[in-house]
Design a protein that fits this description.
303 residues, alpha+beta, 2 domains, 7-stranded antiparallel beta sheet, 6-stranded antiparallel beta sheet, 5 helices, 17 strands, 23% helix, globular
Length: 303
């Protein structure tokens, strides 16, 4: 079996962020799907209703790869198809729900209270809207679990090459379980991608900031929360430095990065790993940035 970290392989899928549409997409080659030994992944959804907070009368799932949707409650929706590719949009759920009641933290003033007096700063609890709100993580959990199943199913190439001229530069897997590191992301970068990173930044003195990846992560975070708090404005970082990749989003050292064990010095690819990805919010935010990184090679090398 071919291994993307050891050799360049023809593309069988592509995870990417569309900067114009502001969305995360997954494109899978039709021939890859046709050659899959198993396309029905019902076993990963059946009997997990309680674990995934599914309600029998309201929630549903599509377990077959290549259908109009995939996963729980249309987590991935088919938005494009041609003779070679199926393109799915990965839903970025809006988590904020409002009760219709006045915000109890600021007594409906929209301003932060200090010792019972109304201050000048905007209330953190309601964001200045004056109405009570809370965060519902069920839909994020559904999307991340659906991604775990699908990315795991398409993680490795078939024995024969796909009929395409593009290269598979990243192969990514993810997980969605409760607890610390429960939404980790990992995978492999191809030798050509690592070589490209070294060309962009051959040493630490020539660190390259990837602005589009930072914008993608910012937008994904905004879609999830409905806003980006001002103190997070500079919390989205994307760098290529000394042939290595680093993506970072707000919270406690949440990041995706390439391995630093020196494999790239031997003409090979490298591992993609992460740190402190505890929530689906962090996972989807960083996957948005990784989607830009995957397309960066195409735009500069294969265009």
């Amino acid at each position: 079996m071919k291994f993307i970290m050891q050799e360049d392989v023809r593309r069988w899928y592509h995870l990417f962020w569309d900067l114009e549409k502001g969305g995360l997409f997954l494109r899978i080659h039709r021939e890859y799907i046709a050659s899959m030994p198993h396309k029905d992944f019902s076993v990963y959804f059946e009997g997990k209703e309680e674990e995934l907070s599914l309600l029998p009368l309201f929630d549903r799932y599509e377990p077959i790869v290549g259908s109009q949707t995939f996963g729980i409650n249309d987590s991935l929706i088919l938005v494009g198809s041609d003779a070679d590719w199926l393109t799915y949009q990965i839903r970025i759920p809006h988590m904020v729900l409002r009760t219709g009641m006045s915000c109890p933290d600021c007594d409906g003033t929209g301003k932060r209270l200090w010792l019972g007096e109304v201050g000048e700063d905007i209330c953190d609890a309601c964001g200045g809207t004056k109405s009570e709100r809370y965060y519902c993580y069920h839909e994020v959990k559904h999307v991340c679990y659906s991604l775990q199943v699908l990315l795991g199913a398409i993680a490795y190439p078939h024995d024969h090459d796909m009929p395409t001229t593009s290269q598979q530069v990243l192969s990514i897997t993810s997980c969605s379980v409760p607890g610390g590191h429960g939404h980790s992301v990992g995978g492999y970068a191809s030798p050509s991608l690592v070589k490209f990173w070294r060309r962009l930044s051959p040493d630490e003195r020539s660190t390259m900031r990837v602005d589009d990846a930072e914008r993608a992560m910012y937008e994904a975070h905004r879609q999830l929360h409905g806003e980006v708090k001002s103190y997070y404005d500079h919390g989205f970082n994307a760098f290529v430095s000394n042939g290595q990749l680093l993506l970072r989003c707000p919270e406690n050292a949440c990041e995706i990065h390439s391995d630093h064990l020196g494999e790239s010095d031997r003409g090979r690819g490298t591992n993609i790993t992460c740190h402190n990805l505890d929530s689906g919010v962090q996972q989807l935010t960083l996957l948005a940035g990784l989607g830009v990184i995957a397309s960066l090679y195409d735009n500069h090398v294969e265009s």
